[in-house]
């Protein structure tokens, strides 16, 4: 077990483990930590705890110190400088005629690097742009291409539900979302209704998917022939939340029944017994034996006269 603290660098960003060393830090404290990019500032979101070694990415970096008032002032100054850097970079992109959309930028705490985030439809050759920016800012420049979901996470906004984007407010990582999840929940497959502002499938499609899959087990599929107290019919629709099924009965009537009160109709036996199919079928061995007997007693055809 290793003693760690969890630090987050951005709102709803990923949580990283750091060695608290001799620092007495607690949840909510702003801290200065050592990262691969240099010194960075973040907030403690997970207090001191012990975790298994397999959950640690070695080597484990240390918490340098709690952020002082001077550190907070420097962070505020960096935020102000980022606005000017964005304007300058946008002008340089336009001057170089690059087909890229600038999203955001950030200074590292020690001003050793500026990271610019952008989106583009394909690969962009920005080598000349990097040289131009380095000559202006006199520091290391990194241009990082991101996807539309990351762009939505950075910029934020209001979703179709009227609430702030999930990715912006609390989702640390993006989880895979598929069209199958919408089908499992009987949602409309209209792209405008199941897509977020980013143009991708909404992250919230995944929230209740596991519940639907668990509840759907044991319930008949649409189109299955069933027997009800009102007669035979086919499953027209399934309501997972209410655990009911709508059955299209003979005569054109449709009725709703609890899922446990309908019985799947067994197919008729393909043999001569015309009874509900059983496993193993008692008619098939006899049928096979009769066919084998017929084949054995069948006389060969008579030779044709020459």
Q: Key terms for this structure?
A:
306 residues; alpha+beta; 5-stranded antiparallel β-sheet; 8 helices; elongated; disordered C terminus
Topology:
Elements lengths: L1 E7 L6 E4 L11 E6 L2 E14 L11 E4 L2 H28 L4 E7 L5 E7 L7 H11 L2 E6 L2 H8 L10 H4 L9 H6 L6 H4 L14 H8 L8 E4 L2 E9 L4 E6 L4 E5 L4 E2 L18 H15 L9
Helix pairs in contact: 1-2
Give a concise summary.
The chain has 306 residues and is of the alpha+beta class. It has helices spanning 69-96, 127-137, 148-155, 166-169, 179-184, 191-194, 209-216, 283-297; strands at 2-8, 15-18, 30-35, 38-51, 63-66, 101-107, 113-119, 140-145, 225-228, 231-239, 244-249, 254-258, 263-264. Helix 1 (69-96) packs across helix 2 (127-137).
Task: Tell me the total number of β-strands.
Answer: 13
- Work out the radius of gyration: 33 Å
Helix content: 25-40%
User: How far apart are the termini?
Assistant: 95 Å
Shape: elongated
Largest β sheet strand count, sense and barrel closure: 5 strands, antiparallel
User: How many distinct helices?
Assistant: 8
Q: What portion of the residues fall into strands of 2 or more residues?
A: 25-35%
Helix/sheet category: alpha+beta
| Sequence stretches where pLDDT stays below 50 over 5 or more residues | 286-306
| Overall residue-averaged pLDDT value | 84
Instruction: Going across the biggest sheet, name each strand in turn.
Output: 2-1-4-3-5
Summarize the helix and strand pattern as letters: EEEEEHEEHEHHHHHEEEEEH
């Amino acid at each position: 077990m290793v003693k760690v603290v969890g630090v987050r660098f951005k709102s709803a960003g990923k949580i990283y483990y750091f060695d608290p060393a001799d620092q007495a830090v607690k949840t909510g404290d702003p801290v200065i930590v050592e990262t691969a990019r240099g010194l960075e500032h973040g907030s403690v979101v997970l207090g001191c705890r012990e975790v298994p070694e397999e959950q640690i990415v070695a080597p484990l970096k240390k918490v340098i110190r709690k952020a002082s008032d001077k550190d907070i002032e420097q962070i505020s100054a960096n935020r102000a400088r980022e606005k000017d850097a964005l304007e300058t970079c946008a002008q340089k992109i336009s001057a170089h005629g690059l087909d890229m959309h600038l999203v955001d930028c950030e200074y590292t705490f020690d001003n050793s690097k500026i990271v610019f985030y952008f989106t583009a439809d394909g690969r962009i050759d920005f080598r000349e742009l990097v040289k131009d920016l380095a000559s202006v800012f006199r520091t290391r420049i990194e241009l990082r291409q991101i996807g539309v979901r990351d762009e939505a996470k950075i910029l934020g906004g209001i979703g179709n539900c009227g609430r702030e984007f999930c990715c912006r407010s609390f989702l640390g990582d993006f989880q895979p979302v598929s069209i199958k999840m919408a089908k499992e929940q009987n949602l409309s497959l209209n792209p405008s209704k199941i897509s977020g502002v980013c143009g991708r499938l909404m992250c919230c499609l995944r929230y209740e998917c596991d519940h639907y899959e668990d509840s759907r087990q044991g319930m008949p599929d649409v189109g299955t022939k069933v027997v009800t107290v009102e007669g035979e019919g086919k499953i027209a629709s399934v309501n997972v939340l209410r655990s009911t099924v709508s059955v299209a009965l003979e005569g054109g009537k449709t009725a709703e029944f609890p899922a446990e009160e309908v019985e799947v109709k067994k197919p008729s036996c393909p043999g001569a017994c015309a009874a509900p199919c059983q496993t193993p079928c008692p008619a098939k061995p006899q049928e096979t034996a009769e066919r084998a007997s017929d084949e054995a007693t069948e006389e060969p055809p008579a030779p044709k006269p020459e």
